[in-house]
Amino acid sequence: MSQYNIVKTPLKVGIVGTGYAAARRAEAFNASPHTQLVAVSGNTPEKTATFGNTHHVKTVSSWQDLINDKEIDLICVSNVNSLHGQIIKEALLADKHIIVEYPLTINSSEAPELLNLAKAKRKLLHIEHIELLGGVHQAIKQHISKIGNPFLASYETILSKPKVGTHWTYNYHNYGFPLIAALSRFNRFTDLFGEVATVSCNARFWDAPESGYFSACWCQAQLMFKNQMGVNITYGKGDKFTHSGRVLTIYGDEGVLLFEGEKGKLIQGDKIIDVEVGSRRGLFAQDTELVLEHLLNDAPIYTTNRHSIYTLQVANAALESYKTKQTQLMDN
Asked: Is the pLDDT of residue 57 over 60?
């Protein structure tokens, strides 16, 4: 028996959300012998109905109704960032296990309360970080020793989107500060290099014609780690960008690791070696399988909530730096 005292399977699952992540979760739950997907709640009746038909699951009118369904054991939170904290708290109070796509919450100050509540209720609270399972991150961990002592890294992610519309990922309130919403950009580096000493950040936003929305943004953060590792992170998206791209570079005193999209290279002097990078496909299914093994059999899991919350605090420091125009000390 696991630490969560689960005595009956399949676990009955409800999903909050109808987007890409929710669809991949639905596929994973439907494929697992340990779970039965029973309900979904979405943002609009039309999208919820389409999702329900596609994944053969009943629809409910609100996330409140979903978490109060006594039949459901596990809630998967895959909807707008601004509601994560509220849904998780209410679901824990309703004695549900929880899987949530990062971030846990866009308000880092409420994160410890959510963790403590999950512990008190003896319920699973898993924060997804599939970037740690992805091919690029695994390739970095495999080859980073070959570049000697790392001292500098940069990571640039640009998403060109000529027609933005009123999607929630371009809504100031629902999406949150981009470097909190896109927490994986920080999380892979705290996983690799540990604790951060200082954070500084600049950003720019372009308002959309629709009230409360932006049409483009960029954010740039500089992290100085306690081991003297420097990391520069650039994240931009929207209609001001004409090209998309993703480039990650790590410099060491004996070489360089360079990843352009899913193509990697190890550069050592004049020698350039191709680095094999695993596929990004199937990561939500892999995460789901690992979480269920942990939930049912106490198997170790690839990430911890404490680490995710620490990274969330780093991202919140970036927000404070942007607002105050001052470098933030993490020890404070």
From this structure: yes
